Structure formats: structure tokens, C-alpha cells
Amino acid sequence: MSKALIIYGSTTGNTEFTAETIEKALENKDFETTLLDVSDIEAKNVADGYDLILLGCSTWGEETIELQDDFVPFFDDLEEAGLSGKKVGVFGCGDSSYEYFCGAVDAISEKAEELKAEVLDTLKIDGDPDADEITQWAEEISAKL
Description:
Layout: E1 3-9, H1 14-28, E2 32-37, E3 52-57, E4 59-60, E5 66-67, H2 71-76, E6 87-94, H3 103-114, E7 118-126, H4 131-142
Parallel strand pairs: 1-2, 1-3, 3-6, 6-7
Antiparallel strand pairs: 4-5
Helix pairs in contact: 1-4
């Protein structure tokens, strides 16, 4: 049985809903899942023992890319997470009317790649999350293991 770690930072609840929907979809694909709110953890060795790491963060800011507040310390310490050689997916919620639509997804993906993770896919959600879209993405990413 493959093990998936889902870490999310959420302010409005949309990214949390997305993370929970991903968790259910992966469990239906026989994954053993761990769902963690980024505000409750530290980055150090968090990826140890997992086959798939999924990172979720919303994007704020009009003039620059701003990660969700709770996610910032984790992002700053991401090199301690143990992502090298891990399969990673990144998801986030945003608003396409902003210049940096889901820019946090791009920033996290780029940093994960710099840390030698294999980024399998990303999911950028515009506005309110759609459970069917999220489930489809989770199923597609799970098939890449």
C-alpha cells in the first residue's frame, strides 16, 4: 500500500476542503493517507516514509506572490523536509483575476524541483473548489506512482 502525505495551509477553508477531497480520493485508491495542517507541523524530515507528498497552499497578494500565512515558515524550511527523490504534487486555490493566479503553486513546485523532488503535477483552482475536478486530479496523480 502506497503512503501519501497531504500538507495544506488554508485561510478561507477552500484549500482545506481541497486537501480533504484529495485525501478521500486517494483512500479510495487504496492509499494510506496522512492529512496535516501546515500550522501544526515543522518541515524537518516530514516526508520520511511517504511515497507521495502533496502540498497545498492558496495565493494572496496583488503586486507579488504571497503564500498563505501559515505556509510561509514551512516553505522557508522546505529544504529540511526530505523531498529529494520524492514524488510531489502541488495544489492551490486562487482567483484568476489577479496577476499571479495560484502563484504559490508555481513557487512551491519550483522549490521542490530545486530540492530534487519529482513534481508529478499541479492543480490550480479558480474560485470555489469543485470536488469532481479535485477527485479527478487526485486519481490521475495517484496513477503516476
